[in-house]
Amino acid sequence: MKILIVNPNSTASMTHKIGEAAARVAAPATTLRAVNPPHAPASIECYTEEALCVPGLLHCIQQGEAQGYDGYVIACFGDPGLDAAREQARGPVIGIAQAAMHAASMVANSFSVVTTLERTVGMAWHLAERYGMRRFCRNVRAADLPVLDLEDPAKNARALIRDACLRALREDRCESIVLGCAGMTDLCRSLSDEIGAPVIDGVAVAVKLVESLATLGLRTSKLGDWATPPIKPQPTLSPGASC
Ligand code: 5HY
Hints:
The chain has 243 residues and is of the alpha/beta class. The protein has helices at residues 12-25, 47-66, 82-88, 96-107, 121-130, 157-172, 188-195, 202-215, and strands at 2-6, 31-35, 71-74, 93-95, 111-115, 137-142, 177-179, 199-200. The chain folds into 2 domains: 2-96 and 204-215, Rossmann fold (3-Layer(aba) Sandwich), CATH 3.40.50.12500; 97-202, Rossmann fold (3-Layer(aba) Sandwich). It is built from 8 helices and 8 strands. The longest helix is centred in the N-terminal third of the chain and has 20 residues, at 47-66. [(4R)-2,5-dioxoimidazolidin-4-yl]acetic acid (5HY) binds at residues 9, 43-45, 76-78, 115-116, 120, 147, 181-183.
């Protein structure tokens, strides 16, 4: 089985970290490849950057289709471009936020999301609403750190995330934690051990979900919303052209 993991931002060190975390949980028969578009925001922390990352993401999915990949993971907590990616792909396409929230709801009766910046809190609430997870989601908390601080050992990212997790357990009375950024994927196991509660990393869950769905022969339905788009010339984005 071949799974393509797309980090929609352009930070190669995060792509590598995501690929390593995925490889730790993948089945022996699964071949993984983690990629990112060359031209995308270095990190995705707002709606504008979410929109800007989608063309590159879709190009990765189209290349994956040409190379015969069985399924895809969108490794960004906003699940950017998920619907469009599902139009492009035959196999399953799993966003890490949807994966993590559903997994959390099956090991605990409630979860809080611990994400990066305050400005992404509303985006996570919108996803919980979209996925029917509001009844499980006690709170969305920002650890108040930029995404790229997760890539800088000189920053105390882990401590900020751990403290936000502990506050969530104490104040939200939640029973599990969902990590709100793909860049936190390497912290999951140690945080769970340290705080004494399930901590869910959407990257790992999404990999196993793609394996499970593909093994069951479940592919993205083409009967409705995610039918293959009609073939017609699409405009290329030309930054130089004036509107
Ligand atoms: C992510 N941004 O997982 C999201 C996290 C966020 O560049 N990768 C990013 O804060 O929305």
